[in-house]
Input
Amino acid sequence: MLTYDVVIVGGGGAGMRAALEAARDKSLQVAVFSKTYPTRSHTGAAQGGINGAFAFKDPTDSIEKHFKDTVKGSDFLGDQNAIDFFVNECPECILELERMGVPFSRDEFGRIAQRPFGGASSPRTCYSADKTGHVILHTLYEQCLKHGVKFYNEWFLLELVVDKGRFQGLIVQNMHDGCIHPVNTKSVVIATGGFGRIYWNRTTNALNMTGDGTAACFNAGIPLKDPEFVQFHPTGLAGTGILMSEASRGEGGYLINKNGERFMSRYAPEKMELGPRDLVSRAIETEIREGRGVGGNGNFYVLLDLRHLGKKKILERLPQIRELAIDFENLDPIEHPIPIRPSCHYMMGGIHVSDHTTCSTPVPGIHAAGECACVSIHGANRLGGNSLADVIVFGKAAGKGACLSAKELSSGAEPILLKRTAYWEEKFRTMREKGHGLKVAEVRDRLAATMWNNVGIFRTEKEMEKALSEVEELLQEYNSCYIGDSSTKYNSAFIQYVETGNLLNLAKAVALAAIARKESRGCHARDDYPTRDDANFLKHSTVTKIGDEYKLSYIPVTITKYQPEERRY
Output
C-alpha cells in the first residue's frame, strides 16, 4: 500500500502548483498521480496568457478594475468574496512564476508584456507569445522535481474512498502493468481538469479531459456546483474544434462573415471582437443561423482574419496559431483567413469548493483546484486569461490547505481501502474477460451527439429534456459495454471505459441543472427563457449523487460590492 501525507491527482498547472506549495513543508511526503506525463497536461493548451493587474500596458488598470470585470463577466453569478481574494493574489502569483523562470514576453521597458483580452476593461493579460500555458507547465515541473515531489506518471484515478463522511484514501491503477493500488493519505488535492469531452469532437479539450477527478468526487457524495455553465470558445477550428487562442483577437484579429462584414458591431459595438466569450460565441452562431455563414452542406463557419496584422507580428506573437492553421486547415493565416466556429472549451461548474482560501470541499481532507473545481470565481462565464490565473492562485491555496489537513487528520482505514481495491481488481478482470456487448465508442459518440445537438450554445427545455432522456438510456446501456482487450499492461480500452462512465454521470448533471435554470445567464442561453431572472435564479445550482439518484438544490451567491445590473459591452 502506498502511503503519503499529501496526494495530488492531476499533473497540470493547478496540480503541480499545489504539489510545489505542499512540498515546501519538508515534514510532509508529497506525491502527484497523473494519467499523462505532466508536461503533456492540458494546461499546455492555454495559449493566450494569464491575468494580473500590473498596469504596465495601461496605467489606469487596477485590481479593482480586474475585480469588476470578473464580476461582470460572470454575469453576477461569481462569489465576490472569492473573486476579491483571486484578483488580489494574481500579481504576486505571476511574479512568483517569473522568479521561477517562466520566460514571459517583454515590453519595451523590459517588463512583463500585457495584451487585451475579451471582457477586460484594460490590457492585463501577461503572456509568452501564444504558448503561455506550455512554458508555465514546464517551469512548474522543473520546480517540483527540485523540491522532491514524487511523480507517478500514467497512473489513473479510479475512486476516492469516503466512508461515513470521512476521507479514507484513493484507488489508482498503474497503467504500465495494470496493477491496482490503494493509496493511504491524509489529504488529497483533485486537479484533474475539465470534462469538455462530453461533446467529444466539438471541443478544444484534449482527449484526456474526461472529468475523472470531478466524477470521483461526485460519486463520493461531494456536490457539483453550477454544472450547467459550459463555455463555448468562439474560435475553434471549423474542422476539428482545436483552439485558436483569444490572443488572435487580442492582437487585433477580425471576425468576418460571408459578406466580409465585421459583424461584431451588431452585438458588442464597443468591444467588437473583444466581447466576452459567451456573447461572441452566440454572435457567430446567430450569423450562421441567419444565413451569413461561410461554407455549405451543413458545415458552416465564419472567418478569423489576421492578414492585416502582417507577417512579422503573426510570427512574433502568434506562431502557434499559424502552425495549427497550417497543420489542420492547410492554410497560412498570413495569406488566408481561418475558418472557425465555437467549440466547447471550459467548464465553469465543477466540484463544490466550500472555502476558497483552502480550496476545501464538504469532505474534510479533500481539496480541489483548477477547472475541475467550482470556487466560484467564473460564475456563468469565464473571462479569457482568468483560467491560468485560476490554476496558479487556487493551486497554491489548495496546496496550503492540503498541508493543514494533513496535519489535522489521521490516515485512512486500511481494511476499507483494501476492500475497494479488491472491487476494482475484480472489475478489471471481468471487463478483460467479457467477450461481447456494446462498444464503448458507440456510447461515447451518442453522448457527444445528444449533448451538442440539445445542450449546446442555444438551449430549450424540449431539447434538453431529450438529452437527459438519452443520457439516462446510455447510462443503462453502458452496463452492457465490453472493451475487447484482455491484456493487463497498458489496457487503454479499460481506461476509456471508465472515462466514458465518468462523462455519462457528469453529462446527466449538466442536463439536469440546465433544464431547471429557467433563464438566460452568461453562457447558459435559452431560447424559451431569453432574459436573466435575478429574482429566481441569482443562486448556485448544486447536484448531489446519492446512490443512483441525483438531487438538485441551490445555495446563495455571495455579493459584496456590486449588485447585478444589465451586462453591456
